[in-house]
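Support reply, case 0932

Customer input (verbatim):
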Amino acid sequence: MGVLALNGGSRAFKGSVLQWPVFDKTEETNLLESFRNNQWWYGDKVRQFEQEYARIHDCEYGITCVNGTVALEVGLRALGIGPGDEVIVPDYTFVATASAVATLNAIPRFADVDLDTANINFESAEKLVTPHTRAIIVVHFAGRPVDLDRARAFADKHNLALMEDAAHAWGSQWHGKGVGSVGDLATFSFQVSKNLTAGEGGIIISNKKAVADACRSYTNCGRTEGHPWYQHYLLGGNYRITELQAAILLAQLARLEDHTTRREQNAMALDKLLRQIPGIKVAPCSPGVTRRSYHMYMFNYLEKEFGGLTREKFLAALNAEGIPATQGYLHPVHTNPCFLNLRHSPRPENAWLSRKCNERKVFYDEVSSPNAARLCNSEMVWLPHALLLGNNRDMEQIAEAIEKIQNNQEEIA
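Our regenerated output:
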């Protein structure tokens, strides 16, 4: 395999990682059309994108907003979540899944995740249900759908709202139906790193008109359809996107099918190759997953199988070979200072929530999520989704780079 690139050898990966975001003349044409029509603000392109995006996820309603974090907050409000309500969230996710709950003075309760999928563990979630629990948020991590049959059954059993955080799951399907069509609503992000992007942006989708109407009102200054412009029914905000963002998103949406197919095909090829390498664990998809959008390709790194080589050193070597791999999250969500500080020294705006957590003995410094901690501390490796837009030889070179590191691990100090 040769000398490691870390020590002066040639790189194993010779492919080119695509620059992201990807764009072409379609974005330019759509933007110029908006400019020349003097339509910059919340018009036909916004409505067209909302309809088309909801449709590909088998939902009737789509409500765009400025980003995925706002989508989560608005979705929770629309489901009636408020002060003192408890919402179950996974402990391996971006902080917004939980901070959106706390922003409403509701209480996030952190469930552990499955080691293989990084998706919520329902046995852990079961232990968190109390008389105050009002909702559960499931995250389709890295685009792999949660078992939505089980999620729906869990929510129905406990009379909870079911919310899908699909910020990684544009076009993913469970039993042939788009994610978002099983929960009461789903939220998506179009931030710049995402597979579908306008730099920033978000959307909420639902099949429930009352939920969709509430979301629209909350994002549009509390207005209600069919009533005067300067009449406001809810305490909403101005969370609308512009025609210019929608123009970009429509162009991005036009190539989503092709990109999703390419990522899936390359991921399946990479799965096959990596499963032959001891110490690299790639979880199979559930039969219920009929389409998966890969926001990243992830695998479990088993240090023992690499002669005790730490993940930190493995990642340094892999990056030197030309593959931009990362460890992902540094720690489970509950260990972020914004949650740990609630117990002892909350900021003034968190005083009510802190008091309520203390009354109920919800102490985030006592949360235990061993699987999430293991993924963060030693096992998880992320590869960016742009790698999966390469060719079959690129996938082979990724596997060859990992084999090279394993075969030359004694070279790594």
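We compared this against your earlier run and they match. Two observations from our side: The domain at 25-254 is CATH 3.40.640.10 (Aspartate Aminotransferase; domain 2). The chain has 14 helices and 13 strands. Please reopen the case if you see a mismatch on your end.
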